[in-house]
Specification:
Blueprint (H helix, E strand, L loop, with lengths): L1 H21 L1 H24 L7 H18 L4 H21 L5 H18 L2 H6 L4 H26 L3 E3 L3 E5 H26 L7 H14 L1 H14 L14 H5 L2 H15 L1
Antiparallel strand pairs: 1-2
Helix pairs in contact: 1-2, 2-3, 2-5, 3-5, 4-5, 7-8, 7-9, 7-12, 8-9, 9-12
């Protein structure tokens, strides 16, 4: 499994960095498509276990929110959310009339999935669109990647105290705390490194990077636990089989989207 994960990372990382650096519609489009794929995984997980969330509404809603964030930023947010809520409700009212059971629960699943992946996921675009967004994204993402890796390896090597026995039995407090430390150090180091290219006016500096990496490493793992909660309830190991050794798109994005959201507000408040 570790070998498969490493090979996949080495193959995908250059493409990911190219898209990230390119920015613009290439980046926004790539994020929209990957999030839409995660949305389809989310819907199919529940549909395979007897529920009926509206897959077309979730996929279209996620795509629409990411595209709207690219075009309008946070303008028109109340209208977008109201339309998504209404469309979700209409879908499940009709579905119930056609004989579906549990449409109230399905309605909640549809709207939750659409907002979770579309609204929170679109912060990847929002962070990239900030004046120095490229550099900050290259601080935030490595921080959560290396924090997750540290938590995994340290937890396997010396972890004793379970962090969340029901949600994720393999996670330990030792691994989690090591991830927080590594996330903070990574944030500080990358902020110093990128400040050379971004310039002094960018606001990139070690202390801000340390704070950002630490906050991201503390809070972003909640995204992983949230998806683990869904998988535990549905008794599945992965959300999909897109990437060998990594599972589905939703398995990979679970902490990234929260890291981007946290990074966006930290950059907005600190610079």
């Amino acid at each position: 499994m570790l070998r498969e994960r490493t090979v996949v990372i080495l193959l995908i990382l250059p493409l990911l960095l190219y898209v990230l650096v390119a920015g613009g519609w290439l980046f926004a489009g790539a994020i929209a498509l990957v999030l839409a794929l995660a949305g389809s995984e989310y819907a199919l997980l529940f549909r395979h276990h007897g529920r009926r969330p509206a897959l077309p509404v979730i996929v279209a809603g996620v795509l629409g929110q990411v595209i709207a964030r690219k075009i309008f930023g946070f303008d028109h947010t109340p209208l977008i959310l109201a339309v998504l809520l209404m469309v979700s409700l209409i879908w499940h009212l009709v579905d119930y009339e056609r004989g579906a059971d549990g449409s109230a629960t399905d309605f909640a699943l549809t709207f939750a999935g659409t907002i979770y992946l579309g609204w929170i996921g679109a912060y990847l675009v929002s962070l990239r669109n900030l004046p120095e967004g490229l550099w900050w994204l290259l601080v935030v993402l490595p921080a959560i990647w290396l924090a997750d890796s540290a938590a995994y390896f340290v937890g396997r090597a010396v972890g004793k105290r379970k962090l969340s026995p029901r949600l994720s039995p393999n996670k330990t407090w030792e691994g989690y705390l090591s991830g927080v430390v590594v996330g903070g150090i990574t944030g500080a180091l990358f902020a110093m490194l990128w400040s050379v290219g971004a310039g002094l006016a960018s606001g990139l500096e070690a202390m801000r990077g340390l704070l950002m990496g630490t906050v991201v490493a503390i809070l972003a793992p909640l995204g992983d636990l949230g998806i683990s909660m869904i998988k535990r309830e549905l008794k599945v190991k992965d959300t999909g089989a897109l990437l060998p050794g990594h599972g589905g798109a939703l398995d990979r994005l679970d902490t990234w989207i929260w890291a981007a959201m946290l990074g966006f507000y930290l950059v907005s408040w600190l610079t």
